[in-house]
Amino acid sequence: MIVRSRRARGVALSLGAVLAVTTACSFGPPDPDQQGAPPNLPKPSAALSQGESGGDQEVAVTVLAKDLEIPWGMAFLPDGGALVTERDTGRILQVGPESDANGLKVTEVQRFTEVQASGDGGLMGIAVSPSYKTDKTVFVYYSTTKDNRIAKLVLKGTLEPIVTGIPRSRDDNGGALAFGPDGYLYAGTGDATNGTQAQNPKNLGGKILRMTTAGKPAPGNPVKDSLVWSSGHRNVQGLAWGGDRRMYATENAQPKFGELNVIEKGKNYGWGTVDGTGTDAKFTNPLRTWPINESYCAGVALVEQSVATSCLLGKRIWMIEVTGNGTVLGTPQSLLTEEYGRLRGLVLAPDGSLWASTSNQEDGGTPAPEDDRIIRLVFSGGGAGRT
Question: Is the separation of the CB atoms in 132 and 152 below 8 Å?
């Protein structure tokens, strides 16, 4: 069910691949490069959204899964089900594609004793191999007592670390993991609370890494024999690409500003010298910043020219329209503000909807009776010539 929020203040969004609005939800086919098939979904419930300026905004929200424990990463399998990590339990869950009385069926796939969770470390990002139908391989980013690591495995099999020695501390452990359109694996790391590591080219902290599936530096990296793709990051927990192959990353944990960055090969994004936008030409400024208490965003996903980020302290989703050359168009919109608490994961599903995860079971959260949850979002409301 989709309802119109009379109190919503957001301008209409251009979300063509996400929605087609009639009296009920309907979807067009996914792009050719998207994995998976649409799962068997429960009926949506109504939720109200909140934007910044004039106009109504409709949002259909479906609770797909509930009673989870700090879900972190989400990645889709070819059958349309999703693999979901739980940070503190060290579990991989499969959500869907089958459903039951509570929503999509949730099944524990396996639990890793190697994961040592504390602070914001634990079992974090997950990525499904682009060749999963033949190699059955997935990749995870996780914490031990000494470091953060990236490993590969066949589900229910043994972890095989491919990158070790990523700095580990209580906070700022990064954790983003995703395959790019070039077929290589990217990881976002944190500076582990030490701002000097983000500027040290020999340290893996505060970086975005690009690698082969064996954990080796990918061909074409800025420095041969180095995993580093970009540097000067505080804490990267979300990575995504648009149809134009432009890469976006969230940046959180700075004292003043949360960031959305456009990531380019070899660029330096300024931490720990710059918090937000600066004037030093050797650093690349963010595409957009927000006060940290309105952001601290983790997940990021794209649909056509719309960029969405899910925020922890901000307890909302920010939506940004970008032009063909990557500049911001209009005013960013604040959606679902305070309605589901802390929002962490955000991914584009095979059917063109967005899946988001709450993170209310962790420190700083206020859990609702069904938390933590995975919710499915479909937006409507025209804009940029769309209806």
Answer: no
